Amino acid sequence: MNVARVRAYALAPVCTLLSAAGFFLSFGLGDLWWLAWLAPVPVLWYAFGTEQAWRPFIAASLAMALGGCNLFQAYGGILPVPILALAIGAPALSFAASVLGARRVLRALGPLAAMFAFAALWTAFDLLASFSHEGGTVGTPAASQVAAPLLIQTASLVGFLGITFLLGLVPAGMALGLRARSPLAAGIAVAAFAANAAYGQWRMTEAPTASLRVALVESDAAVASVQQADATAALQAVDDYAANIAALREAQVRLIVLPENIARLEAPARELAQARLAAAANRAQATVVAGFNTQTDAGRQNVAWVFTPGAVQVSSYAKRHLVPGLESTRYQPGLAAFAANGIGIEICKDMDFPTTLRADMVASRATLLAVPAWDFGADAWSHARVAILRSVENAVPLARAARDGLLSVNDGYGRLLGRAQSKDGFTVLVADVPLGTSGGRTLYDRIGDVFGWFCVALGAVLIAWAMRRER
């Protein structure tokens, strides 16, 4: 075996492991946003070489699969094995298919077409994944950039898919600049990154027109069973929360958000709990949003109750997107959106579905989103990032209170105004939220996933063109 062949065999595992480490630390439960722009480069550089196609395919799929193993930190032993396998395997195969498609375009049409082919194909797969009833956009690469608000403002134009496209275009340009000696490809990559950052900087200079003081209240210990009805424990949890709500009167808070599914409540404990929370809302002179599960006309549902000061009746919203296996076998999904006094109400996983949020914002014109949630500990920031993406897409501030996770408040540009980790004792997070225009008014609200479908078409056209040129 000659030296060149030995070096070729050695490059495959090196490039695979470098990209895998980058994916592990930036995507999914990873948090190094800047590394996401570099992680695909090694495996793309390898794929754009002269090796047989099956080797880059294995390298690319293995790199993404190894990176996706960070999900075990949060979901291992909790989610059903088939769901977890799909969450790791599907992104790995779609990434590898995008790499092979770009490689084929490179050979037939050159470096510039190849870099756009990779970005378009990866974005196309991300669009198709978003229609999954099980996950939605929970695994989108775009969520990796939420820690850098400057770089995610493109979401207000074309949604999360615009960020995925850039995360494909930039590293593909860098890899082709190195492998194909294409300064133009590298130059376009740098220009695209700079233009995206410049747009973000410009958009985030818009001044707010008003503000609203919001409080998030959560305790991992002040909860009761969500599977068995225990009236004593449930009412004790309600009393603990009610005391913390009433104590916020002097802070002049106008919205208080509690977490998802604090307890299972049945009559007559349900009526007692509602009366006590309504009284606490009146004492605090604030709208209170609280999550429980209870029996409704539609069956057992995961609900958010809204208590408005002075209101005679309690408003109710039922979660529409249920966690596969954990909730889908226990609860009936809700069917309708809900907003109260300009506040849009969603529950946890509802925020993983941009089509749902876009329709809600267009219909309600809400000025703020209140989201009771329940995380899995290790995925606290990871899942909060997906919700913040919806906030930026629709230009609506977000107040999200999660059990076993993160309490976070951000403005309509994704900038964090407050963040705290949940704990056994009560955590109270208060923030003044700047308000601007109401939801449903961004370009993305108007055009939806047009850009995503354009990427589907672009990827298909480039592949077809490359195949025809090869013939």
Report on this model:
The protein is an alpha/beta fold and 471 residues long. It has 2 domains: 3-205 and 449-470; 210-436, Nitrilase/N-carbamoyl-D-aminoacid amidohydrolase. The protein contains 15 helices and 13 strands. It has helices at residues 3-26, 41-47, 54-68, 72-75, 81-109, 111-130, 155-158, 160-179, 183-203, 231-246, 269-284, 354-364, 380-394, 443-447, 450-470; strands spanning 210-218, 255-257, 264-265, 287-296, 299-307, 315-318, 339-340, 343-345, 368-374, 398-403, 406-410, 416-421, 427-435. Strands 1, 2, 3, 4, 5, 6 and 13 form a 7-stranded mixed β-sheet that branches. Helix 10 (231-246) links the parallel strand 1 (210-218) and strand 2 (255-257). Helix 3 (54-68) packs antiparallel against helix 5 (81-109) and helix 6 packs antiparallel against helix 8 (160-179). The radius of gyration is 24 Å and the shape is elongated.
Task: Flag low-confidence runs.
Answer: none
Q: What spatial form do the alpha-carbon principal axes imply?
A: elongated
Share in helix: 40-55%
Largest sheet: 7 strands, mixed
User: Helix segment count?
Assistant: 15
* Residue fraction in strands: 15-25%
What CATH calls the topology of the largest domain is Nitrilase/N-carbamoyl-D-aminoacid amidohydrolase
The end-to-end distance, rounded to whole angstroms, is 33 Å
| CATH class division of the largest domain | Alpha Beta
CATH superfamily of the largest domain: Carbon-nitrogen hydrolase
Structural class: alpha/beta
